[in-house]
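Design job #97: recover the sequence.
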């Protein structure tokens, strides 16, 4: 397993920037804004050169067809759910691809990513997530494939307008700990409402590296300031999607984030890499 993680984490800083563009898997029209053409999207990201790119079974080919030794590592999304819509479907589900670990081996993935969903008053979705994690853990162990669990504490749909993140630190800490107990090799967790509380998430994860989920698109200064605070709290990396691929300068924001992660650049220093509109 460590051999794959050597391709995932930066050798000098021990941190990682994973750009997530697996949004089309979830069947929401708004989620494919700026990533309609995935071949072009992936090439843009390869040119920007983050440490890793998170893709789905059907889209991983666009990364793995790229020649050369220096391309980003592949993080493969393993599961699909319909929990993000507003209004929600009458039937809510979460399923993993049954043969996903073998597919990951064939695709030369470095890491798998699976959700641990906690929705208000929908315990069956959390149960489905747990069943997926346990099934994937079995096969991931067999093939020495690192498994990144994504604990997602969601708000009530009627409040948030679609299941959105609940940044309550107590809830996030509890779900992160469950992910660790289920055998996560990596954790991808939302930021707490107060970034200065994120050390609690790091502590409860123990020796399991924690990467921070990006969420919705925000201004450059906000995302860089948040990243700086979260890294100071002990995060080992970031998994950002829309804040990179929907940016007017994807290469610039990638370089800015990479400078923060791997060179300990300040917010002011990182901003200099981004082209103005």
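Job complete. Output follows.
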């Amino acid at each position: 397993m460590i051999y794959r993680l050597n391709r995932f984490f930066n050798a000098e800083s021990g941190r990682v920037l994973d750009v997530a563009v697996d949004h089309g898997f979830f069947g929401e029209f708004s989620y494919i804004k700026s990533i309609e053409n995935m071949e072009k999207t992936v090439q843009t990201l390869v040119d920007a050169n983050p440490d890793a790119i998170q893709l789905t079974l059907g889209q991983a080919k666009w990364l793995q067809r790229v020649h050369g030794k220096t391309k980003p590592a592949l993080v493969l999304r393993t599961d699909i759910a319909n929990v993000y819509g507003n209004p929600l479907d009458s039937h809510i589900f979460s399923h993993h691809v049954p043969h996903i670990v073998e597919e990951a081996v064939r695709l030369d993935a470095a890491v798998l990513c699976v959700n641990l969903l906690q929705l208000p008053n929908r315990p069956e979705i959390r149960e489905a997530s747990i069943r997926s994690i346990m099934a994937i853990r079995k096969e991931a162990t067999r093939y020495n494939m690192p498994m990144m669990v994504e604990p997602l504490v969601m708000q009530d749909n009627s409040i948030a307008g679609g299941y959105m993140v609940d940044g309550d630190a107590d809830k996030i800490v509890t779900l992160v700990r469950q992910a660790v107990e289920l055998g996560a090799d990596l954790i991808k967790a939302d930021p707490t409402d107060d970034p200065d509380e994120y050390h609690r998430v790091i502590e409860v994860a123990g020796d399991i590296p924690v990467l921070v989920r990006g969420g919705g698109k925000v201004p450059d200064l906000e995302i860089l300031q948040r990243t700086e605070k979260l890294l100071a709290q002990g995060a080992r990396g970031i998994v950002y999607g829309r804040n990179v691929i929907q940016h007017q300068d994807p290469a610039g924001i990638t370089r800015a984030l990479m400078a923060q992660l791997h060179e300990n650049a300040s917010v002011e220093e990182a901003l200099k890499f981004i082209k103005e509109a």
